[in-house]
Structure formats: structure tokens, C-alpha cells
């Protein structure tokens, strides 16, 4: 009935539906090519199609990656104090309303009785009882690790097990003794003091080749990079005269063929520095220290299966009313009063707060109805 209602509500939006079908089926390369001819401009837009997927921007369906990341985009912003300041602000807002926060507290089990949740059990053995439980943990961790499978329909469990969460991107943190100097940047031409956020992907082929290198279990010889320098905007993030450069890049598959990341990690760093030196000469000489974070590291550090920054791939079978799984894309679950609000739900990851807002709307609907 919900699907029929959705179809009826948008029955006159024929052109928008066609545009959506284009975005869902076309490659990012063909999609961008409808408006632009210059390869540099194409590559700039196609860069967004590399986030959240495991195939290059020449593959069908990748236009949607691009569209979903640019919807509502108003520009790149930096948070004063670092991204942790956003979490601190949310915590302060909640605590002002009486919310209690426990950190370093591992939830071992979501408690269920007669098909309804009644709280959680911590690793310490302590039980916290509640009328509702809301999880922003990856869907696999929530339902395969924290809920006893006897409380879940077999078909639902199979769908969750099939939710693909393979990460392909890496993060590289660098402490440097000077700002990167991009040889292609001009203050006069751009009217910008300094490019604190940049994309290094000179051609569409450069992006596609990076994925091609990684297609069969290896990593990119020339990775595409997205360097940002938060310390340029917020000097409190680094000592005076020093800076922090944070790279997002690709492509580094979760598993390597006939090797492992302990052995290959240093070469990935060398590859990234070599690319950076082409566009910002002398960058590698400015690096004081660095830390590479692969999908394996992301999984280990924050318990995120596969190390995918979006919780799961943004593919046609894992978006909209099929995210995270069919029949449970409304932020609810087979367990009564157990809700989902993380990046595993629509519309996926990034710092949008949309999954949480949507989940809160549905929780309030249920609350008012039961009241």
C-alpha cells in the first residue's frame, strides 16, 4: 500500500521519473557528458561517483552515486575544532534535554521478548531497559550480532547477510611542515585564497584506471585523491607553522590477492605521495608523519563490516525502498520498537543527518499512534 501511495502522489512527475531512471541506469561518464565536453570538468563531477561504490565511473548505474552526493550540496564546510566538535554539539544539545550518554560501553545484545525489544545488555552484564531501542550501528552488526536470530524471520536474516558492505577507499592522515602548493592553482584566477579542499583526478580515464587496477584484488598504482587541509581554516588543529592534511582516496579493496595490507600499505602511501607530488611538487618532503587507514582498519577501529564509509554500497538493489533490505526501509525492523537510524538506511552515509531525522519522524508516528 505504501508503494501504491507513493506512485499516486507522484503520478504527474513524469519528467522527474525519467530523470531518476537515467541516474539509476547511466554511467557517471555518460551522464555528465550530456552537459560538459571538457575532460577536466567531467572528471571533477565524476569524482563524486567514486564514493560508496565498488566500480568505476564508466560502469552503468554510477550516475546515481554522483547525483546522491550532490543533491542539496551547498559547498564544502569545515567544522571548527574538527569533526568531533559536531558530536560534542549533538551531545550537549541532548544533555540539555536530559539525555544520558555512556561512552566506551559495548552493547552485547538487544533484548527481545515476545517479538518486542525491551532494552539492551552491556558486555559488563548490566541491562538497560527501555520501551524503544534505536540503532545507528551497521545493519549487519545490529541484526546478525546483537539480536538473537530466533527473533527474526529467516528471509530477513538472509537479506541482511546479503547486504554488501565492501569498502574500497582509504584514508591517509598527514602531519606536514607547510601547506601543499598546487602548481595549477591561481589566487588571481579563482578569487580563492587557498584550496583547502581539492580533488586530484585530472581526467575521467584517470578515475576509471584506479578502479581497473583494483578490480581483481589489488590497489591503484595512481590513486585518485581528495586532500583537505582543515588546519588552514582552523589553526587550533595543528601547532603554529604546521598543518594537517587529510586524504580520502581510492582504490584499496578490503581483501588483497596473495598479499595483505601489512605488507602493501607502505606502497599505497608511496603511490599517493607520488600522485600528490605531481600536482603539489615537494609535498612528500613536507610530511612529518602519516597514518594510512584501509577498509580493514575502519572495520577494526569502529566495528563497521567491510569498512565501507556508507555502511553499504549505494547500488540499485541497496537504495531507496530496498535500503537496507526490502520491506524494512522505513527505519523499522521485524522486532517491534527496534528502529534503525544509521547510514545503512536511506539515503546512506555522509554527514547529512537525514537517516536520523527520517527515523525520528517514524518513531514519533508510532509513539503518537500507540499513545
Folded structure, characterized:
- This protein is of the alpha+beta class.
- The chain folds into 3 domains: 2-70, no CATH class; 107-163 and 308-370, FAD/NAD(P)-binding domain, CATH 3.50.50.60; 169-302, no CATH class.
- 37% of the residues lie in helices and 14% in strands.
- A 4-stranded antiparallel sheet has the order 6-7-5-8. A 3-stranded antiparallel sheet has the order 1-2-3, with no helix packed on it.
- A hairpin with a 2-residue loop joins strand 1 (107-113) and strand 2 (116-122).
- Helix 2 (14-25) packs across helix 5 and helix 4 (39-46) crosses helix 10 (204-214).
- It is globular, with a radius of gyration of 22 Å.
Shape label: globular
Compressed to H and E, one letter per element, the order equals HHHHHHEEEEHHEHHEHEHHEHEH
Q: How many helical elements?
A: 15
The poorly predicted ranges are none
- Tell how many strands the DSSP assignment holds: 9
Instruction: Give the helix level as a range of percent.
Output: 25-40%
> Main sheet: which strands, in order across?
6-7-5-8
Rg value: 22 Å
Task: Write a compact overview of the structure shown.
With 371 residues, this protein is of the alpha+beta class.
Q: Which properties best describe this structure?
A:
15 helices; 3 domains; 371 residues; four-stranded antiparallel beta sheet; alpha+beta; three-stranded antiparallel beta sheet; FAD/NAD(P)-binding domain
Amino acid at each position: 500500500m505504501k508503494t501504491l501511495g507513493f506512485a499516486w502522489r507522484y503520478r504527474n512527475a513524469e519528467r522527474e521519473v525519467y530523470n531518476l531512471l537515467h541516474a539509476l541506469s547511466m554511467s557517471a561518464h555518460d551522464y555528465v557528458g550530456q552537459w560538459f565536453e571538457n575532460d577536466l570538468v567531467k572528471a571533477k563531477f565524476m569524482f563524486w561517483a567514486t564514493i560508496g561504490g565498488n566500480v568505476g565511473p564508466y560502469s552503468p548505474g554510477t550516475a546515481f552515486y554522483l547525483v546522491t552526493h550532490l543533491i542539496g550540496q551547498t559547498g564544502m564546510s569545515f567544522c571548527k575544532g574538527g569533526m568531533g566538535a559536531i558530536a560534542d554539539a549533538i551531545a550537549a544539545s541532548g544533555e540539555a534535554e536530559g539525555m544520558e550518554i555512556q561512552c566506551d560501553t559495548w552493547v552485547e545484545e538487544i533484548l527481545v521478548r515476545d517479538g518486542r525489544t525491551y532494552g539492551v545488555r552491556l558486555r559488563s552484564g548490566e541491562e538497560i531497559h527501555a520501551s524503544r531501542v534505536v540503532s545507528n550501528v551497521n545493519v549487519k552488526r545490529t541484526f546478525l550480532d546483537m539480536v538473537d536470530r530466533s527473533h527474526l524471520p529467516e528471509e530477513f536474516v538472509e537479506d541482511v547477510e546479503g547486504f554488501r558492505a565492501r569498502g574500497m577507499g582509504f584514508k591517509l592522515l598527514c602531519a606536514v611542515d607547510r601547506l601543499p602548493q598546487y602548481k595549477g592553482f591561481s589566487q588571481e584566477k579563482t578569487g580563492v585564497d587557498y584550496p583547502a579542499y581539492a580533488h586530484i583526478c585530472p581526467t575521467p580515464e584517470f578515475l576509471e584506471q584506479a578502479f581497473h587496477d583494483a578490480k581483481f584484488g589489488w590497489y591503484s598504482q595512481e590513486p585518485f585523491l581528495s586532500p583537505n587541509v582543515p588546519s588552514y581554516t582552523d589553526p587550533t588543529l595543528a601547532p603554529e607553522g604546521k598543518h594537517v592534511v587529510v586524504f580520502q582516496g581510492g582504490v584499496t579493496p578490503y581483501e588483497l590477492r596473495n598479499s595483505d595490507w601489512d605488507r602493501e600499505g607502505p606502497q599505497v602511501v608511496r603511490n599517493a605521495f607520488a600522485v600528490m607530488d605531481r600536482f603539489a611538487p615537494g609535498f612528500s618532503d613536507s610530511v612529518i608523519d602519516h597514518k594510512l587507514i584501509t577498509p580493514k582498519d575502519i572495520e577494526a577501529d569502529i566495528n563497521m563490516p567491510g569498512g565501507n564509509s556508507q555502511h553499504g554500497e549505494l547500488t540499485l538493489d541497496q537504495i531507496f525502498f530496498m535500503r537496507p533490505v526490502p520491506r524494512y526501509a522505513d527505519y523499522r525492523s521485524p522486532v517491534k520498537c527496534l528502529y534503525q537510524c544509521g547510514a545503512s538506511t536511506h539515503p546512506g552515509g555522509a554527514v547529512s543527518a537525514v537517516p536520523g531525522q527520517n527515523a525520528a519522524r517514524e518513531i514519533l508516528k508510532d509513539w503518537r499512534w500507540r499513545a
